[in-house]
Every structure is written in C-alpha cells, then in structure tokens.
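Slide 14.
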Amino acid sequence: MKINNWSKIFNNPCFFYNQNTKKIQFLNKNFSYKSFLLGSVIYPELSYKKFLNIIKFQNSKLKIQKKSSLMDFGSGNGAFLFFFVNKYNLKKNLSLELSKPLLLFQKKIISETTFIKTHHYKTNYLKWVKNESVDYAICNSVFQYFTSEKYAKFILEFLIKATRKKILIYDIKNFETKKNYTEKVRKRQKLNRFDFKKKYKNTPIRFYRKRFFINVLDGLKLKYNFTYKFLRLPVDATDNKYGYCLLIKK
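Slide 15: predicted structure.
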C-alpha cells in the first residue's frame, strides 16, 4: 500500500483524530504497520516488507533495551521514532526536526518525547540537550542536507556528546558514487540535465568521503571514548549502492 499524502492517512481506518484530546489514535494494534503508513507519506517508494527490513537492520545494530531513551535527529514525521518508542516503551526521548509542521504532527502521535526545532545554520537549539541525555540516537538520511561539512562536524560531535550508548547514522551519501547517483535520480525523475540542476539548485545533496568521518572521529575518540565502524546499507534500502551507514559505540 502506498501513501502519498496526509489525507489518505487520516481516511485510513487505522487512524482516528480525537477532537477532545487533539491526538491521533490508532485503531489497528499493529504499530509496525502504522509506522510504515507514516513512513510512506515521506518515502512513497516504501513497501511494508522493505520498511520492516530497514527497521530490522537498524534494530540489529542498536539493540535498544526496553524503557531506555532515544534521540532522532532529523526525525521527519516521526515514523521511525514512533516505531521504536512503541516497541520498547521508551521514555524521555528527543525529536529534533527542521520542519515546524512535522513537529506539530509528531506531537499528536508520539508520547514521552521532547520536540525541538532545529535550524540550517544556527545551533543555539542544542542548549536544550544535556550531555549524555539519551541512551541511543538515530539519524536517517539527514547528513546529505547539511549546509556545510563544518555543520556536519558540529552535529556529529553533538550526537556523541548527547548519547550514552550507540548512535546509528543511516544513509550517508557516498562521494565516490556521486556522478552515478545523480544521473540515476535524474533519469528516475525524467528530467533533462538543465531542469535537474535547476530543481536542486537551492537544495543540493551533500556527499561525503569516508575520510571526512575518519578524520573527525579520530580527533574526538580520546575526548569521548568510543569506537566506530562503517556499515553497508541494507539491500532493501532505496539506492543502497550509493550510500553507507556509520555506527558509533560508547
């Protein structure tokens, strides 16, 4: 089942908006399917099977324990955060997202969570997050939208400072595959090169060499005491050949 807009979500029998509590209630008890429906709004290429396999991959790397806490940096509409919060009964979670409307939506579906609006350039919002505030952190397909490597470096250190156990940065665009990736996306969108360049002029995709992360992390290891390793994206991930993951353990 593919969901392309919010109206289809609200017309789905799994969901009910309670006018009294101003919360979205779920009539279907299968929260993994509800998470998939939410994810499909932003990622229409998702299938239920693909979503479950991606969640399973992330879960196998983080090994989240029940009643712990989770931070989702760049949380979108909260689909992944919603899944983990419900599956493990997580408490004192953090959701950081650039879009105010998406944060307002998350407040209707996710409990036990503090919602913080981020900024493309400014970092003063980070004052709300204390050192080692959460047990785990996820960051899904977000680093590609950062405005500079300086900002990426700052957020990387922030994630390490704020997390006690494990951090999974999922889907980092690989610089080595930049040409092939952009050409594939252009053809998929049926755009000529001029129109493709014009479309992404103000929202360029940032690609990273692994050496960038190695240099940054090696400079931080003594200060924060952690290990890290690069992982392949799961086979089910969209464009899995053009990105990689980073797992950090403290």
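Speaker note: DSSP finds nine helices and nine strands in the chain.
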